[in-house]
Amino acid sequence: MTGGTVELRRGAELLALTGLAFTQPVLDVLGSSPETFVFRGVEGAQIVLFALAVALVPTAVLWLGGFATSVFGPRVRLGVHVVTVGMLAGIAVLVAVRLADLTRGGPALAVAVAAGIGAALLYLRVSQVRLFLLYLSPLPLLAVGLFCFSSSVSGLVTGGEGEVVAEVDSTRPVVMLVLDEFPTATLLDADGTIDAEQFPAFARLSQQSTWFRNYTTHNAGTVQAVPSLLSGTLPTRGRAPLYTDWPDNLFTLLGGSYQMAVQESVTQLCPPDVCDNAARTVTQRTAIEGEGLGGLVGDTREVLRQLVSLNAEPEVQVDAFAEEIISVDAPDQMDAEARDDVTNQPARFTDFIDGLVLAEEPTLHFVHLILPHGPWRFFPDGTEYASPDADPEGEVGGTWTDAWPAELTRLRLELQAQYTDALVGQTIDRLQESGLWEDALVVVVADHGGSFIVDQPGRALSSANAHEVMWTPLFIRDPALAPGIDETDIEATDLLPTMADLLGIELPYAVDGASAVSDPDTSGTKRYQRLQNPFQPEPDALLNIDTAGNYRRLLSDLWPTVDVDDPVGSFYRQYPLGDLYGRDVAELEVGQLGGSAELDQLDAIQEGGDEAQPAYLGGQVDLDGIDPDEAWVVVAVDGVVQGFSRLFAMLDADTAFSMLVDQDVVGGQPHDVDLYVVASPTGPLHPLTLP
Prior knowledge:
691 residues; Immunoglobulin-like; 37% helix; globular
């Protein structure tokens, strides 16, 4: 063969192997996550170009790199190609082993290395192997085709017009704020009402609207829960969160008669010909970092990282959707007094607030905020801190295996919920200032909850956590409803028919729910659509959940009260080491060296800077002569104890720790940080060496 033919063949071989190692597994993961593309604002031809890039760019880079070595002679060029073949084969085997959950860590690496060496030798010695790779070279393009036209993403590629209801008998404006991963339990005080000290805006809302305290979701996944509550239909497997799969929903109901000011996040239930139609939309959009193909490239890198990780979960997911925030000093039309509530706010929330004005035509004002959903990274005033890459830490296989990370994460959720409360307060203020408050149908609802019970899943439903997973806040303000607590049994599928009832609209299609106003549910059971996944091993089933028992548990199993004046300090003071918090290390007994530690935020604390505060401190320890089951890790910043942690197990560490320090302790300036271990609550501090 000529040199050109040889190089073309080598390119085809690399195309086959990159298809096995990268293209097919990456597109398979992303193809099951259309919400990723919706969140990044990528659709149509952009998705096709992205898929082609995933298929062809790795091959092109590897082939060009290998071809450049031709200047050193044919033997070097061949050697580089054989090494590349072995490397790709090893990665392909590692990915397969990971996804099948056959083994992890060192054994997985050993299998991959052996497979790579074996593949390289077979490539050199067996011509049929080279021929097989040649035949396999169309694989990446086949993966692209399946991804674009047969996966859950296909609706974003092919598009199509949504069928809207031509006209409805309503001229009232509608304002809807959808929150995310917000258990009702977060809000409750000892009397079963809203803790007004922690959540003044929600308390205010509960007094000026109807609080349906017995409201529940049908599923704990956002991409199922949000479409369900907006469509009035139960979740089912295989439906992407797109208007093509959920054609009958709030947006298509009002889209023929209303102007649309819609801010969706991980769903695209409003058809583009409605919400992107200049004649119908009044939506304001601020360009934010992370949108478009650039953000999608970052998601792809994260998928690759998980695929080749030696200790990650076998299920690779893309679900770290974090609201992009802007400083309140950014120019916009918000009232100056409301700015003092928080230091940062989500960009899409700013656009939502700016659009809350009375208009001549009836308008649907809608926003779905991914708050207080993790990653948990906000203090109540909006100060941002850096959350860990795998947030939450300590939830192994979707289950809380240790009390400490569950309780610390619950605190972080409550702090982020207080930040969310401030945004709700701004919304109420703006509605009252604009005049919409008196005339509009106003709905504030959360899509699903979350649980922090030890030995129970964080999101998958169990008999022990249903009251935290299923029960979420719902507030409706309408002249036809009396303000205050309403105990009516209401589910997510009842929300759309209830809103239609209050607007005087007769739904032109059947739904799985009914109006809580004119046809309330008296069955005594709640419906929950269980969908099997790695964290929910039971098969798909529509479950009937006891209402009364779980509702009583919601009102009785109260979360610890958070001191709004000192939330972090009060959290630590409830534990056996509480007396250490805030004390100078110089006043305490310090013993001999206790071992070594790795601290994830060490450089950020020591160097300072203007980035998100390094307030979350995680890492792992290697102890010397101290029982890890009895040990506590203690952190001192500038010589003062600012937190501590029990040790717990994660996938890649048996002695991990996690702490949250107060927002006034770190950030901005460089700080000294020291770690210690104590063998008992009354024992001396034993220093831990840091890198």
